Every structure is written in structure tokens, then in C-alpha cells.
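Worked example (supplementary).
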Amino acid sequence: MKKVNSHVLALNGDEAVAYAVKQSDVDVVAAYPITPQTIIVERFSEYVANGEVQTEFVCTESEHSALAACLAASLTGARAFTASASAGLALMHEMLFVTSGCRAPVVMAIANRALSAPLNIHGDQSDTMAQRDSGWIQLYAENVQETYDTVIQAFRIAEDTDVLLPTIVGLDGFTLSHTLENVRVLPDEAVRAFVGTRKFIEVLTHEDKTAPFRLDPDYPMTMGPIALPNYYFEFKRQQEEAMSQALTTIRRINAEYSQLTGRSYGDGLVEAYRLEDAEVAVVCLGSTAGTVKAVIDALRLEDVKAGLLRIRAFRPFPVEQVRKLLQNMKAVAVMDKSLSFGGNGGAVYHETRHALYDADAHPRIVNYIYGLGGRDVSPGEIRQVYNDLQNVARGQLAEKSVRYLGLRE
Amino acid sequence: MTGQEWKFTSKEIAEKPELFLSGHRACAGCGPATVLRLIMKATRGPTIVTEATGCMEVASSIYPYTSWGTPWLHTAFETVAANASGIEAALKALKKKGRLKHAHVDVIAIAGDGGTYDIGFQALSGAVERGHDFLFVLYDNEAYMNTGIQRSGGTPLGAATTTSPAGTVVPGKLEHKKPIAEIMVAHEMPYVATASPYYWRDLIAKARKGLEVEGPAFLHVFAPCPRGWRTEPAKTIEYSRLAVETCVFPLWEAVDGKYSLSIPSRVFARAPEKKKPVTEYLKGQGRFRHLFMPQNKALLETIQRLTDEKWLKLLKKCGEATVSEPASSSS
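After joint prediction of all chains, the assembly is encoded as:
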């Protein structure tokens, strides 16, 4: 594949999502406004109003209906997209499971935002973390450029016939959704060629005919039936198998996209930054990684062997990569922008510890809960985390392995 | 649209292949199963059906079996109108892009009273407001039958259900049945109608009109449930007739908001003496049995009075001005 020319647009994260969706030959967008996602649907509405897309745009009366409409559109054979955040995603909760259970490759951008109560419109990752067992692939972007690139990739990943799973692209609320960056965008035709048109697996209908998996009057198919204890379990096992397949597909699409654009994000699942010779490492998702990288560069000048493992795919969780890349660290700090109440730490911490259980060596590992409700995390605080880690590496594990960063106590 | 003539003769209807197929697990005497079979006789070409969670969804789709001769989708209880929106939007988009094989595909959304009056109402109202081209069929068996006969917004006054039982203090459901079809007319949608399976030709014709109209159509179909109503399975169609003859469930349609009484009900407008007392309909139904106890006499009278009042209001809406007062309200 030949690299294509791209040009630079000044876009915030939401606009970058809308632009990527515009270029991705999407058939149906059904959505409901919610801060900090709203700019996505506003920009997309403008594309519709100006005839720049052939997409059917459905302004639903709730997020629940938005996802139900996308699910049905997807099963009818359309490429479908929606966007939400926080309470909107929580309202969709029921339909998230139905969408993945029906194997509908809907793509959804989530401008990550805190959950009520108290009401808070600012960024954290409580919304998507609460949906981690809903059967959706979850990819988190570090910056606006990656947001744009990941939305385009998400259609390929979700629709891959080995996968067929709905996919969330998470961008940190306000930090990415409302922050202007220079974004290299591809020509329309390059994106269109990259995403292609939807491909369908062939399945056996109840009339014993082989037909594409979609609602087609020529090949009547019953979708979303009731399955009793004699069949339900097998459906769920197949979803888990698809998640395993997604580990391969996400890497493949990242590599293909890299050939086209020269941009790649680690192996697609995780991105290691100055980790090869590191002794102390931070693990995080999303935009915080940018701050962490800057702090690492400064620390390296001070001979601190600091590194970062950014998890891009939280679902499926790249257990193997996390284990391999972290097992030789002396100490690891996992940063969670959400809290699993009563679970002793955040979800990323839990999963990272879980990945390391079978490792040859076991680094000391601590958890930092940070940034809830949009509280800013400064380079100084990240530096403090690395200072702590150096003590932890020396065996001075503080009394608590779960800590809070930037909190009044 | 009103100029359309359908030659739905018994022969033609019998010869049309079934799209709601036998082998489903509905109970003996199931009103909704008969209703769906008749609705599917009204289809005019390629059709996609979507259905809310409920009796008919469960009875017709037990994996790996199905009773559906059309593409069919179920997603959740409250989502059927949103599903229809998505299907319709997908068909439009695929057609614009030249990726749809068919010139037109009809979309039918089916829900029971729970999925329409209650949990599904928001999605229904939204989909109709947006003007999607689909036919919404409400099969109204007047309670949550699939979960064991709990009251819904469609359960009538006085009916005993498992969550509105007739006790020593409370005589069944204390609230009225929500006027769902009139609420849908208030959405200023192109077509709303009520139907009953006893008047099967009227039902099929209305379903067909609902499919042919551009934009959303709403068909409210009366659908007795022997298990939930505590009636004899053999009497489902008889109750479907009595509900109309007592004007408990009058048949009408509203085309672009203009009401007109359908022929089966027009009889009782033109000849009020033929209208039967509500007790003819209520008696024999276990869910109303307590109404015939002496202490509930007043409630029984209230039901008759309210039925008459509603009927009069409907006659006005339908422009049936020839009848001024029903015989029962004159001294």
C-alpha cells in the first residue's frame, strides 16, 4: 500500500470524530445530544444539512433509542454509528449487551465523562469502565489525531468477519473532545477505500439456505430470538471467541493503517514508551499518557529509568502484552480515572495485576485513582508518582497500595 | 388512500401463504396469535418485522425454531419503535446508495400493551414524531401476560390482575385504560385505527392501509387472552365481537387526524338500541367476576356510564351527529 498525502485541519476531538465518520461511508447515524459529545452530532448534522453525506441521520428521543436504532440499522445491513457519554452511555446499558449479543458491528464514540451524582459534566472514564463487561471492544485515544485515526480503524475492526463486535472509541471529555489540535486528515477516497463496504458472513437460514447475515426479505432470518438454557451459553462463548479474535484484528488494522498513513499506535493494543530499559512504569489509558510521556522525558535526563505502558485496547484486554512488557519492571503504578467502589482500586489496576499473576517475575504494583470529575492531573503530580515508585521499587511499599492523586483528604 | 379498493376475499386470504407460521408456542385460544396471522395476511411485498419482548415474541422465536416467514428482529422490551426507525433509516440509506435490492420494503413493528402503553411509549412517540414510514401494531391483551398477568396502562378499570388483584378493600384496577389510539392521533400522524379479530376483514384492510400510507401508522388491535382474562379459550373471538357490540372497544380510524367510525361500530351509532350493555361483555370473564358481587354494583354502573360517555365523545369526533343521546342516559 502506498502512503497517501494528508492535509492538516485544526479540529477538536469531537470534530475529528465527526470528520472521520463523514469520510467512512456511514449509512445511519442515530444519536442524542449530551455534553461533551454534542459537538460530534452538531458537526455531523451540518454535513447532512449541506448534503456532504448520504447518511440517514436520526435524532432520537433518547440514547437508549439511539443505540436500538443503530443496532437495527446495522442488522439491516447498514454501517451505523452513534456517540454518547456518561449518563447517555449508562442509559444505553441494556442495549449495549443486546448489540454485542446480536453481533452488530456498531461503532460508538464516547467523550468520556463522569457519572452522577453529584452531577458533573467533566472528564473521567467511569462511564466506559462501568460498561467493560458489555461485550464491546473498547479503544482509548491519547490525542485528537489518534481519535480521528481510531474511529476510521474502528469500522474495520468491528466489521471484520472474524470479529463482528460493536466498538467504542473513547476520547477524554474536554481534554480531547474540546481541545483544538492540528490533525492530519486523509483524503475522502483514501478513507473510503480503507473502510470499504460492509462484508457479511454467510449463515444458514431456517429455510436451509445460505445467506448473508442481515435482515433481507429474500432470505428471511429470525434475529434476536429467545434462547433457553439449552442454547444461550454457546452464544456467549462465541462472543468471547470473537473478543480473542479481536486481539489479532486490532493489531492487523493498526499495521494496515500505518502502511497507509505512517502512523501507528504501538501494536494497536498497547503502546510502550521508553519501556525497554525502564525500572519503574506507569500504566494508563487516554490523554494522560501525553503528560506522562513529557514527565518521562524530563526524568530520563535525571537518570530515572521511567517508562509508560499505555493501554489502547482495554477490551479485549491484552493480557499477554501487558505481562511481557511489565514483568521485568521493579515497580508499576496503574492510574485509574475511575473507581470500582469496594473493589480495592480501579479496573485498569485489577486487570493489570491479573495479567501479571502468571508472569515469571512480579513487579511491585500500586494504584493511583486520579482525575475523577475532570480534576486536572499536572506534570508535577505524575512526577510525584514516579518518585513514589522509586521508593516502592526499593521495597518501601506504602501502607496502602491504592492511593489517590490530587485529592483533598 | 381512501380510494384504494382491496379485494380481500376469503379465498384470496386463504390462498395467500402464511407469514406467521404454525408451530409457535402460544396458548390455546390466544387472541394475539390470531391477530398476527391476520396482520401478516395484509402484507403487500417485501417486509421486515420487528417485535418487542412479550408473549408473541417469546412464543414465536424459541431458538432454534421460528414462526416467522419474514425477516424478523427482536432486541428488547421498550425498543420496538426505535428498531423500526433504524430499519427504515437503513433501508433509505441503502436505497440512496444503490445497495438495496428491493424498490420498497415495508416495516412492521409489533408490541403488546406493555411494550406500547408503558415501557415502549417513549420510543413510539419519538419514532412517530420523526415520521418514520412504518406500521406499529399494538396487540392489546390488556395486561403483562407473558410475566403472569400484571396490570398495564392498557388494563381496563375494574379488572383483576396479579398486581391489581380484587381484594376485600380494592376491587381490581382503580385506574382507567389509557386512550392510547387517541394519544397517537394527537401526534398528528397520518393513520390511526382500531380493530378486532372478529371483524377480520376490517382488521386486514386497516393493516394494509397502515402499510400503504406514507409515514407512521398505528393500529390498535383488541386481542383477548384466555389465560389472563380467565375466559374459555373457545370464546376469544366471541369476546372480540362483544367488545365492539357493547362499545367497550369501538372500531374507528383517523386518516390525517380525521376520525370516522368503521362499519362494524357504525351499526351502533345509527341504531343505538342494538348496542349491548357492558355486562354482556364483562360476564364470563374471571378478571371481572368480582364486579358482579353486590358490594361492587356501583363500580359496574360506573363502567357502563364511562363506556357510554366515551362512546358519545367518539361519535362526536367521527361526525356521527344524527344520534344525540344514547337511550340509556335519557330518563
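Two points are worth noting when inspecting this output. Chain B has one domain: 10-329. DSSP finds 13 helices and eight strands in chain B.
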